[in-house]
Design goal:
The protein is mainly alpha-helical. Helix content is about 60%, strand content about 0%. Helix 7 (about 165-180) runs parallel beside helix 9 (about 205-215) and helix 22 (about 445-455) packs antiparallel against helix 23 (about 460-470). It starts with a helix and ends with a helix.
Length: about 775
């Protein structure tokens, strides 16, 4: 199944692309292990990912084993670069005595005709060492015959060669030609004559064993051979893994292994096939061959798994990056909450303890790379929340690792995470000892976000927001990590599809006005004091600070704290809002009209999808300041017992609150975007935005002060409209809601108490009010 992982991921990607992007897999995986900082590049196709692993040819470091063998043949008198040029770039005709290539010049100077003839023959074979000679297969018979001819020549040359090296080289060419001719019997015969699975002294022996493994009929023995090839030849690792059959019982293969080294090789491949917890396999390999670099790599891979299992849910609040977890998060409605997700992280921290206990029990003087094992211990201590001991262990590592050692950067990253997490709630800050590390790694977005999340968990939302804000720096978009996707602790099953990747949207949804004001104050103080760390790390532009004040005022609107909102908006001034929320203002990013932000109608006098029925008695430019100011003014008039038109002003106030809901033309007073697919969110005014309950309240106040039946009927009609939104909101958030219920509309109408009051109290006006909106104007005019 794992061999289908990449295909499955692509298929899932196409499905979700059709329905809209939702991050999963590698999009959400958190990891801090930088493979460039460790010495396992020869295993790079098997680095852990949400796809188990995948081949990345750009990361594969060729070992040049064949070039090294040739260099040894030349008594180390020739550079590997010159040998590689001949082997990879030269054609048959390029092999000449007058060639400037130093490898060829050496061979000709030694009159080594056997070596020169071998190189020419090998070049003659190159074209036929592929399946791609003719995509239409028109010359298949010709290619097969030519391979047979070359194969026979190679066999003869192998038998006649005076040097053992060239006997094997010609025999290997025969094996490869037989493979491409699908002649397994020839592979068996040639291998028996010139090679032995018990004697794999150089790269030619290993490559020959690879073809022998392909022709082997015994599945257990085939697996044993591929395990030997995998361990010995980085260049053959991915194809050996592909041929290796994990369905063959492990015990059957181990029974054929004649020594501990071979057993460790076999266990390594079975370990790579295990996408789940692999500690027992690692322990077995340690017992068989503790010096095996494959053992260290499996530990490295297990650490990568644990980073995903522990850190992805803990920091991003997504359930996990693997395909199985993605399916779980999309379909398991009962567990769609952050507490369940964090429980998953805690469960896997327990497994991290088990891995840590194994490392503590191991003799690090007997492993391939003791410093890596020590690093693994430090990170596992972080995972298990033993921050003090992890920091103590890191101090020891820092004394051992030189500053130029690449692993030191990973050590510093883990150190910073420990320093942040090892603080008490309410007293957390950005530790001085971590500041240089942060500046050095400011382009590592997942690392920076993790630090911010630690501070947020510990109550320091100011510095958390600064770290989050730095992730939006356009200069870091294509460096290291691309984008961080994350969710909120406030997410509920209904908001599970809500995720964030820009700090402004996160602050918009999650921060309280008090937290946001504190953050703005902190930022302004940093600007005044020119703090060196923040200036080196991230300095917020004045335009961003203005946007934050806009957001602060908007949050006060959501809380219906109109005076605080107006005071905040006034700090920005009319010019700011005219530029941000005007018909003629173009969006700075794409040059198109910002139609989503435009106040195109006066919210006191116009209602969406309703013919105009209220004449505009006052004309003013519409923006957040003017709307807030007028709302305060009209409320004051409506609440004044001496005002003769209280019913009229209450009605205008109700209109404004109605328009500030998702159903109105001034929704941008409360939101920065709306969606036709639904606007349920974790914002504190979520219910108000979806139900227009304040509008219903003030239409009721207008009704209380109304003096004519027709205007009272109009007020009830508007209250009924708002009540229907409330029914929709309740239904959509109930477990048994079905948008396909044919009786829903009728039931909603019957249960609407405002419509029933309209019918019972104003029966003469009922038909006009319910049949449509055409009579609204006449009923408003009948107010007096």
């Amino acid at each position: 199944m794992k061999k289908l992982a990449i295909f499955t991921a692509i298929l899932l990607s196409s499905i979700f692309s059709a329905c809209g992007f939702y991050p999963y897999g590698e999009d959400i995986r958190f990891y801090f292990l930088n493979p460039n900082n460790f010495s396992y590049q020869a295993y790079s196709p098997f680095y852990y990912s949400s796809l188990s692993f995948e081949q990345d040819s750009d990361l594969i470091i060729l070992t040049q084993d064949n070039e090294k063998l040739w260099r040894k043949y030349c008594n180390n008198k020739v550079l590997l670069r010159d040998i590689s040029t001949v082997l990879k770039d030269f054609s048959y005709s390029d092999i000449q005595e007058n060639s400037p290539n130093l490898f060829l010049r050496y061979l000709y100077s030694k009159k080594d005709i056997e070596a020169i003839n071998y190189l020419k023959f090998a070049k003659n074979c190159e074209y036929f060492n592929t399946w791609q000679d003719d995509p239409w297969e028109r010359n298949e018979n010709t290619a097969t015959a030519k391979r047979d001819d070359l194969l026979n020549q190679a066999t003869i040359l192998a038998s006649k060669s005076r040097k053992a090296d060239f006997k094997k080289r010609y025999a290997f060419l025969a094996l490869r030609l037989a493979f491409y001719n699908k002649d397994m019997s020839k592979i068996e015969k040639t291998y028996r004559q010139y090679f032995s699975a018990e004697q794999t002294n150089d790269v030619i022996d290993i490559w020959a064993l690879y073809f022998k493994a392909i022709s082997e009929k015994n599945p257990a023995l085939m697996n044993l051979y591929f395990a030997k090839v995998f361990a010995a030849s980085p260049e053959k690792r991915f194809v050996s893994w592909q041929y290796f059959s994990s369905k063959v019982p492990e015990s059957d293969v181990l029974n054929l292994a004649k020594n501990r080294k071979d057993k460790a090789n076999v266990l390594l491949l079975y370990g790579l096939y295990n996408p789940e917890k692999n500690l027992e396999n690692i322990k077995q390999i340690y017992a068989e061959n503790s010096k095996f670099d494959g053992l260290s790599f499996l530990l490295y891979r297990e650490l990568g798994k644990l980073e995903d299992w522990v850190f992805t849910p803990y920091y991003s609040l997504f359930s996990g990056s693997t395909i199985q977890d993605f399916d779980y998060s999309m379909n398991d409605f009962e567990n769609r909450n952050t507490l369940k997700i964090l429980e998953r992280s805690e469960i896997d921290r327990e497994y991290a303890k088990q891995v840590l206990e194994f490392i503590d029990s191991a003799d690090l003087s007997k492993v391939e790379n003791p410093n890596f094992w020590k690093y693994a211990r430090a990170e596992l201590l972080l995972m298990t929340k033993n921050y003090s001991e992890s920091l103590s262990h890191i101090a020891e590592l820092e004394n051992v690792l030189q500053s130029q050692n690449p692993m030191r950067n990973n050590v510093e990253i883990i150190k910073a995470l420990n320093l942040f997490a090892n603080q008490t709630y309410g007293n957390a800050k950005i530790p001085d000892a971590a500041k240089d590390i942060i500046v050095k790694n400011k382009n590592n977005k997942h690392f920076i976000f993790a630090l911010g999340r630690e501070l947020e968990y510990l109550g320091n939302t100011d510095d958390a927001a600064i770290l989050y804000a730095s992730l939006d720096n356009p200069s870091t978009e294509n460096i290291d990590y691309n984008m961080v996707y994350y969710q909120s602790l406030s997410n509920s099953p209904k908001t599970y599809g809500t995720y964030y990747y820009e700090y402004f949207d996160y602050l918009d949804a999650v921060y309280s006005p008090e937290q946001l004001q504190s953050f703005i104050t902190k930022i302004e103080g940093l600007h005044r004091n020119s703090d060196s760390f923040y200036s080196n790390f991230y300095s917020m532009k004045p335009s961003e600070i203005k946007s934050l004040y806009d957001l602060l005022g908007t949050k006060y609107i959501r809380q219906n704290k109109l005076n605080l909102a107006l005071n905040t908006f006034n700090k920005l001034g009319e010019n700011y809002f005219d530029a941000q929320y005007s018909l003629w203002e173009r969006d700075g990013r794409d040059g198109y009209y910002s139609s989503g932000k435009i106040f195109n109608q006066n919210p006191f006098y116009h209602l969406k999808y309703t013919p105009d029925f209220i004449p505009e008695k006052e004309h003013f430019r519409i923006n957040k300041i003017s709307v807030t100011k007028k709302l305060i003014e009209y409320l004051n008039k409506a609440n004044n017992p001496k005002e003769k038109d209280r019913d009229y002003y209450y009605f205008l106030v109700a209109n404004c609150y109605y328009n500030m809901s998702q159903y109105g033309n001034a929704w941008m007073m409360r939101r920065y975007s709306v969606s036709s697919e639904g606007n349920y969110s974790i914002r504190e005014d979520n219910k108000e935005f979806n139900t227009a309950s304040l509008a219903k309240f003030y239409y009721g106040k207008a009704l209380e002060n109304a003096q004519t039946d027709k205007f009272k009927a109009l007020c009830l009609r508007m209250q009924g409209r708002c009540e229907n939104y409330n029914y929709d909101f309740i239904a959509e958030n109930s477990a048994d809601y079905s948008s396909q219920d044919d009786d829903y509309e009728n039931q909603r109408f019957v249960e609407n108490k405002y419509y029933q009051d309209l019918k019972s109290k104003y029966s003469g006006q009922y038909k006009d009010m319910i049949s449509g909106c055409e009579s609204f104007k006449a009923y408003l005019n009948a107010r007096r």
